[in-house]
Design brief:
Elements: H1 10-39, H2 64-89
Length: 90
């Protein structure tokens, strides 16, 4: 009895390439948003606060613990993609 089968071949490769392209685009958008946020002075208007935004860092610096956590998550994602690629080639 087969519970789960992985697709192999060009469909998987195309899906991985598409996912990596989406990841790359998201990273570029994030970097641009960060630069825009740094360049734009914070306005103290009476508009409603964004409920889903992350709290701002004091002094405009990133928390080293958060940077390490994000780097670890990205490294893990890259390792998983590499493992899938290796399995697909085998």
């Amino acid at each position: 009895m087969v519970i789960c089968q992985r697709k192999k071949g060009p469909d998987v490769s195309a899906a991985i390439k598409n996912s990596l392209n989406n990841l790359s685009s998201s990273i570029v958008k994030l970097e641009k948003a960060i630069e825009t946020k740094k360049a734009t002075p914070a306005s103290k208007s009476s508009s409603q606060n964004d409920l889903f935004s992350a709290p701002s860092q004091q002094g405009g610096t990133l928390n080293p613990a958060n940077v390490r956590m994000l780097a670890t998550r990205l490294d893990n994602a890259i390792n998983q993609v590499e493992q899938i690629l290796k399995e697909g080639r085998g």
